[in-house]
Amino acid sequence: MKDQIQIRYTKESSAGSNLSCGGNLSYLDLVPGQTILDLGCGRGRETIEAALALGPDGLAVGLDLTTAMVEKARQNAAGTPEIQTGQARVSFVQGDIESLPFADETFDAVISNCVINHARDKKQVYREIHRILKCGGYFIVSDACTREPLPESVTSDPQAWADCFGGAITREAYLASIETAGFPELEILKSREYVKNGYDFISLTIRGTKPQIL
Known about the structure:
This protein is an alpha/beta fold and 214 residues long. The chain has one domain (2-11, 28-207): Vaccinia Virus protein VP39 (Rossmann fold), CATH 3.40.50.150. It has eight helices and seven strands; from the N terminus they run H-E-H-E-H-H-E-E-H-E-H-H-H-E-E. Helix 5 packs parallel to helix 8. It starts with a helix and ends in a 5-residue tail after the last strand.
C-alpha cells in the first residue's frame, strides 16, 4: 500500500492541486516560541505558514513519506524571505507516521490533513502522536472516515488506499482508535458529509489534548 501512496504523491509533488481535506492553521493556538509538527506536510505550505507565526524562537517541522514532497517543501521554504533571514525556522524530514523519528514530548502541537486514513494502524499513529506531544499538548487533525464499513474489494485495493479512499474506517472506529491511544476527550471542530465512489464519507476535523500529569 505504501508503495502506491509514494508513487501517487511523488507525482503530486509537482502538481498544483490541494490534497488536504481541511485547513487546520485557523484552529491552532500558536504562541511564538512553540514547536509544532505537520504530519503529511506535502509541499509544506501550512508548515511554512505556521513557522512564520511561531517566529525566530519557534520551530515548525514537516514530515512526509515521500522524498519528492520533502524536497519540494524544502525548495518552497528556501524561497520564503522570512526563513532566509532567520525570522522563522522550519525543517522538513522524511518519515513514517506509524513510527515517528522524534523524541518523546517534543512538540506543543501536531496538525495533519487527510493523511492518517492512509495508515494501516490508525491507533498506532495516535499512540505516536501521544508519545511525541508534551503533556498538555494537542493535535488538530482533519481526516476522512465512512458511515459504514467499506467492502473488502475496496479495502484490499492498493490504488484505492492511494486515492484517500480504501484506508478509511467508520467514524466510530476512527474516534475509538484515538481515545484508546490516550486522548480521553475529543472535540469535533467540523464535520462534513459527502459521497465518494458511491459510498457515504464524513470529513472530520478533530482536536485532542494529551492530559497533564497530576
